[in-house]
Amino acid sequence: MSFEFRSLKNNMADNRVTRAGRHSYNTKSARIRTIRTPGGKYAAQKIKKTTKGPRCSDCKTALPGIKHLKSSAYKNSKKRERTVSRAYGGATCANCVKMRIVRAFLLEEQKAVKKLLAERASKK
Ligand SMILES: [Zn+2]
C-alpha cells in the first residue's frame, strides 16, 4: 500500500451505516434515513410510513391541519395535532360545516315564514 493511498483512505469519512433493527432489506415498510450524530458519525434512523390521515365525513377530502399518523399514534399526540377548534373539527371540513349551518338556518327561516303565513291566513 503506497503512502498516498493510505492518507486518502484515512481522510475519507465512513458514511456507511448498519440498518436499524433486524430487517435486512430496504422494503416499503422498513426504510431508513442516514443521519449525522453530534459525534460526527452516521447512524440509521427508521422512517415511519405515512397514512392518508383523517378524511371529511361528507366529501372525503383530507382534513387540513391534522397530522397524518397511524390511529394508534393519535393516542400519544397532542390535542392540537388531532383536531381543529371548530364544531365538527377533526371530523368534517370547514366547507361542509358551513353548508350544514346555512342549510339549518334556511330550514328554520322557512318554518318561520310558513308560521307567519298561517297566522295571516287565520286572521282574515
Ligand atoms: Zn367536506
Automatic annotation (TrEMBL):
PROSITE patterns documented for this protein: RIBOSOMAL_L34E
Phosphoprotein found in the keyword field: no
GO MF annotations, alphabetized: structural constituent of ribosome
Pfam families (UniProt xref): Ribosomal_L34e
Gene3D superfamilies: 6.20.340.10, 6.20.370.70
GO terms under cellular component: ribonucleoprotein complex; ribosome
Protein name, UniProt field: Ribosomal protein L34e
Organism: Thalassiosira oceanica (Marine diatom)
